[in-house]
């Protein structure tokens, strides 16, 4: 058999397979990944301890960069100062009002009585976000750049205390994504079979 004929048949085989694959429908399903970094015991941080670095790795949670498309992410960092657990540094006030001679109260909020304030600088994937004053609420971040997370499945975080001292409790990364799968239809498989059968018949000639 001439070599050029064999090459042409090899080319047409690849061409048919490519056309079949491209004609297959893609099915996308939405899913959410929660990746938590939770050291035990909690990590004590001061300006003298330097940067505390950790990595969220969603590859361990089944992420596949070639099939999964990340839609958005949120990052929540739980830190607290060493006075938070017994409330000794904070006061508590309720919102109250009087009506028809009766006192009604609802809700409430904490406030700092005294003491040193804590400030934390946050960097995500080499992008410095800002320095934040730490109270009793977790730090929450949305609209982060997840280009590196899409490519590698990892997100690097660096924390640096610039004033005061505090504890790192945990960090939670929430990833909303689409998992895409190519699903062959019966008609597509039949087309591939007919194409290959035709090539085989031509080769026997």
Shape: flat
Largest sheet: 5 strands, antiparallel
Number of strands: 11
**Beta strand %:** over 45%
User: What would the average pLDDT be, to the nearest integer?
Assistant: 79
Q: Rg from C-alpha positions?
A: 29 Å
CATH architecture level-2 label of the largest domain: Sandwich
SS field, number of helical segments: 3
Domain count: the total is 2
Q: Quickly name the level 1 CATH class of the largest domain.
A: Mainly Beta
Q: Give start-end ranges of low-pLDDT stretches.
A: none
Helix content: 10-25%
Spell the H/E element sequence: HEEEEEEEEEHEEH
Task: Give the CATH topology of the largest domain.
Answer: Jelly Rolls
Short overview:
With 205 residues, this protein is an alpha+beta fold. It has 3 helices and 11 strands; from the N terminus they run H-E-E-E-E-E-E-E-E-E-H-E-E-H.
Features:
single chain; 205 residues; alpha+beta; Jelly Rolls; 2 domains; 3 helices; 11 strands; 49% strand; flat
How would you describe this protein?
This protein has three helices and eleven strands. By secondary structure, the protein is an alpha+beta fold. It has two domains: 1-25 and 183-205; 27-83 and 116-181, Sandwich (Jelly Rolls). The strands form three sheets. Strands 1, 2, 4, 9 and 11 form a five-stranded antiparallel β-sheet that branches. Strands 3-10-7-8 form a four-stranded antiparallel β-sheet. α1 (3-23) packs antiparallel against α3 (186-204). The longest helix has 21 residues, at 3-23. It starts with a helix and ends with a helix. The model has no long low-confidence stretch (mean pLDDT 79).
